[in-house]
Specification:
Radius of gyration: 18 Å
Helix content: 55-70%
Distance between the termini: 54 Å
Strand order of the largest sheet: 1-2
Structural class: mainly alpha
């Protein structure tokens, strides 16, 4: 286990988490990236994020901010990430999540749509986009993305649940 502190919050991680079963060294790299991310997040409020921040560091900064429900910080890090790499589907998807949490639905839809366009075979991005569309009442468009999500991953339980919810709402009398 690796224990470290950032922003006064203690975190404990198994050495190979979230490296997906890779070596302890990967876990150590994650901790190092997390420290860098914490330093970036400390400065994002003053708009002084390091100009040499890498995509990996920006991803970690965004991931930490999302975990701590600091969505404005996540948006700043993710906007830097997509400026650094305009083909970063992961960053666009997470940007959509952060924007949605901040109530910026139109911007979130654009971010989710960009993620889906960059990675059309990713069922998670399709689901997130569909869920956002349902939130703003665009159920017809959402159904298309849910069905495509289920074609890509027939075992996607949350997509099936969302499909049932939409189908149930459509059958309910107004």
């Amino acid at each position: 286990l690796v224990r470290y502190r950032y922003f006064g919050v203690s975190r404990i991680f198994a050495g190979n988490w979230p490296a997906g079963g890779r070596s302890l060294q990967s876990g150590a790299k994650f901790v190092e990236a997390s420290w860098k991310a914490a330093r970036i997040l400390r400065t994002t409020g003053r708009e002084t994020m390091s100009p040499d921040a890498t995509s990996t560091t920006l991803h970690e900064a965004a991931r930490l901010a999302l975990l701590e429900h600091r969505y404005a910080d996540a948006v700043r890090a993710l906007e830097r990430a997509v400026a650094h790499d305009s083909t970063d589907a992961w960053a666009f998807d997470k940007l959509g999540i952060a924007l949605q949490r901040l109530g910026r639905d139109d911007d979130a839809i654009e971010a989710f749509e960009r993620a889906v366009n960059l990675a059309p075979d990713n069922p998670v991005y399709r689901y997130n986009f569909a869920a956002m569309l349902v939130t703003v009442g665009q159920t017809e468009d959402a159904l298309e993305h849910i069905n495509q999500c289920l074609e890509l991953d027939p075992n996607h339980a949350t997509a099936r649940d969302l499909l049932k919810k939409i189908s149930g709402d459509a059958q309910s009398p107004a």
